[in-house]
Amino acid sequence: MHHTHAIILSTGDEIVLGQLLDTNARWIADRLTQRGIRVTEFITVGDDQASLTSALARAASKAPL
């Protein structure tokens, strides 16, 4: 199966609060792009279960990867 697009989901209160720069999302986006996979959205949520569950459901409904 060849995926054509992806959403990157980053989690962590330290990212949401700006205490930590999310360099992993940039690295992942670069690697996906090199493989011909278009990143359509970045989602960042805190460490609470409700936010994470909602973000995962939204991402899964919008992109195969």
Structure explained in plain terms:
This protein is of the alpha+beta class and 65 residues long. The protein has helices at 13-16, 23-34, 49-62, and strands spanning 5-11, 38-45. A two-stranded parallel ribbon has the order 1-2. It is flat. The termini are close together. The mean pLDDT is 96.
Write the layout of secondary structure elements.
Layout: E1 5-11, H1 13-16, H2 23-34, E2 38-45, H3 49-62
Parallel strand pairs: 1-2
What characteristics describe this protein?
65 residues; alpha+beta; 3 helices; 2 strands; 23% strand; flat
Radius of gyration: 12 Å
> Order of strands across the biggest sheet?
1-2
Note the gap between the termini: 11 Å
Main sheet: strands, sense, barrel = 2 strands, parallel
Which stretches are poorly predicted, pLDDT < 50 over at least 5 residues? none
Specify the number of helices: 3
Helicity range: 40-55%
- Overall pLDDT: 96
Helix-strand topology string: EHHEH
Shape: flat
| Class inferred from helices and paired strands | alpha+beta
Beta-strand portion reads: 15-25%
| Total number of beta strands | 2
Summarize the structure.
The protein is of the alpha+beta class and 65 residues long. The protein is built from 3 helices and 2 strands; from the N terminus they run βααβα.
